[in-house]
Amino acid sequence: MIEIGVEKRFKKLNFSYELKTKSNKIVLFGPSGAGKSNLLKMIAGFYPPDTGIIKVADRVLFDSNKNVNLPIFHRNIGYLPQEYTLFPNMTVRENIEYAVKQKHLKIDDKIYSEILELLEIKEKLNDKPSTLSGGQKQRVAIARAIFSRPDILLFDEPFSALDKPIKEKLIDTLMKLIDNLVKFNFDSEVKSIFVTHSIEDAYLLGEEIAIVYNGKIIETGKAKEIFDTPQFLETALLLNFKNIFEINEQFMERIPILKNFKDKNYFGIRPENVMILRDDASKNGRENLLEGYVERIKLFGSFAEINMVIFKKKILYIRLPIHAFNKLSIVNGKRLTVSLKTESLVGFRGLR
Amino acid sequence: MIKYSDIFKFITYLLVIFFVILISFSFDNLSTGSFKTLLNDNLFLKALKFGILSATFATFLSCIFGIPAGFFIARSKGKVIQLIDSFFDIPVVVPPLIIGVFILNFLSDETVVKVTNMVFTFKGAVLAQFFISFPFTLKMSKNAFELVSPIYERIAMTLGAGYFKSFYDTTFKLALNGILSGMILSWLRSFGEFGATLLVAGGIRGKTENLPIYIYLNMMEGDYDKGIAAAFLGVLFVFVFIVTVRFIGNKKRGDV
């Protein structure tokens, strides 16, 4: 259980976060500067919130009412920031075993070598960090954090400096490792919070997603729910919904179902859920039809994206697999009719 | 085409040659005999001991004050801190004699004398040398601390190390080379200190004279041979000292 309700004032921005979850893998997702790292640093104890409470696994780390503010070294956390933080004056082994010495922990030899093998750093134990690649450095940092037996691991975009293939492989390894920590006889499940501004990473990392925007957590939920049906316009924009429109008379005329979208001022549909009708196809029985012409075609290898101009110069993005695109003989200027599947339409509210 | 790096190289060597010529002119007055008399001179050995001891104590004090102050300034921002930082430049740029005047005035004050009498004593010499030389430890520590990111300390704390331990294991050890350079400079500055030490400690023969004061007093008394021989030994001593320390430093840096 993680329970957070804190406020912090800075000169330019006020932060207030509310988060209560039983999930063990949480992703804080939001644009740069939204305050994701700030929250992580407050959990770590790098600086205190002005008011509020932070509770992780039934331990109170901070409580302004009761004057509780545990020092960093009593919080039992692992923290991995974006920059490389291996102690340059120590070997890989000394780095990994640092917490074991500080906290007088006992680590089973078998578990020790299993984890090092999984992270592929067993051969590097006697090397200095300066001889490692970026990916290796973060692997060692993960091992170092895990052997400190934390209640919670805080990841502040630790892989953002790495190349994509290396990053993806590392995330796979990390997820495997975290899932197996119980098997490795670590006392309890280790919780983790990941901060990221990349949608792909958010998909890969989290069970539960918290959307951070302008110093606030605007919505929280299971990853799939949030990605498929976000509640707020801001979330939809962050999640790259692409087709987002204000609900107005013209749209309600063409898409009658929008009249049922009570207390929503916007609607959206992902580009891959827009269906193009073949020239010879009958329009009868098709729902939510929109007409327009092709303005631009972008080819991305495995799929194509078409910008279609609908009424009032609004642009509807359509995405389709390349084999489907090839069959349709679409060229610039061609008139198209598309159908929006009702179940793919999502309504949003603006924050204000 | 002459490359600028060649010109710079030429200038560097020219400087070395100037310096060697400068020293070699005093060779005329040197003989093995003068070294022998010097080493048999009880006053010389006393001055050497006095110089080494007072410089060591002064450096010790410089560490106690200079390293923490250097850390504080390195981690702080703001105009007041900048002002304090510049304030500590004073002992480096003001002639030592003037610093000596200030210290002497302070120590001669009736209330201070009631507490401790340091004028014309070993303690006085240490105090004078401390004020002249602590900025080296402070500045070099500050520069070294500035190069170490504070994140290491925080990470060490997340791994269970307390406030002091996390500082010592990471920031301090990573800055140690810089701090040591500062300490060496402080020690050498103290060892070669003349003006303030002479004024505060009095330069009493066999009691409060260090190497520079010994050389000065001998020259004043007309004993050129001893003075020049002592000067040579001083240069040699300092040179060997620096080279050794550099060598050890480089070797250590090699493993990081």
Task: State the main characteristics.
heterodimer, A: 352 residues, alpha+beta, five-stranded antiparallel β-sheet, 11 helices, B: 256 residues, mainly alpha, MetI-like fold, 0% strand, globular
Instruction: Give the N-to-C terminal Cα separation of chain A.
Output: 31 Å
- The H-and-E topology of chain A, N to C, reads as EEEHEEEEHHHHEHEHEEHHEHEEEEEHEE
Helix-strand category of chain A: alpha+beta
Strand order of the largest sheet of chain A: 7-8-9-3-10-11
Major sheet characteristics of chain A: 6 strands, mixed
Uncertain spans of chain B: none
Helix content of chain A: 25-40%
Structure write-up:
The complex is a heterodimer of chains A (352) and B (256). The longest helix of chain A is centred in the middle third of the chain and has 17 residues, at 164-180. The two termini of chain A are 31 Å apart. Chain A contains eleven helices and 19 strands. Chain A is an alpha+beta fold and 352 residues long. Chain A has helices at residues 36-44, 92-96, 98-102, 109-118, 134-146, 164-180, 199-205, 223-228, 233-238, 249-254, 322-328; strands at residues 2-9, 14-21, 25-29, 51-56, 59-63, 68-69, 77-80, 152-156, 191-196, 208-213, 216-222, 243-246, 266-269, 274-276, 289-299, 303-309, 315-321, 335-340, 346-348. In chain A, strands 7-8-9-3-10-11 form a six-stranded mixed beta sheet, with helices on both faces. Chain A has a five-stranded antiparallel beta sheet with strand order 2-1-4-5-6, with no helix packed on it. A five-stranded antiparallel beta sheet of chain A has the order 14-18-15-16-17. Chain B is mostly helical and 256 residues long. Chain B folds into two domains: 1-30; 34-255, MetI-like (MetI-like fold). Helices cover 81% and strands 0% of the residues of chain B. Chain B has 13 helices and no strands. Chain B has helices spanning 4-24, 32-40, 42-75, 79-87, 90-93, 96-108, 110-115, 122-146, 151-158, 163-191, 195-201, 211-220, 224-255. In chain B, helix 9 (151-158) packs antiparallel against helix 10. The longest helix of chain B has 34 residues, at 42-75. The two termini of chain B are 40 Å apart. Chain A binds chain B through residues 44, 46, 71-73, 75, 77-79, 81, 83, 85, 87-89, 98-99, 102-103, 128, 130, 144-145, 148, 150, and chain B through 149, 151-152, 154-163, 165-166, 169-170, 173-174, 255-256.
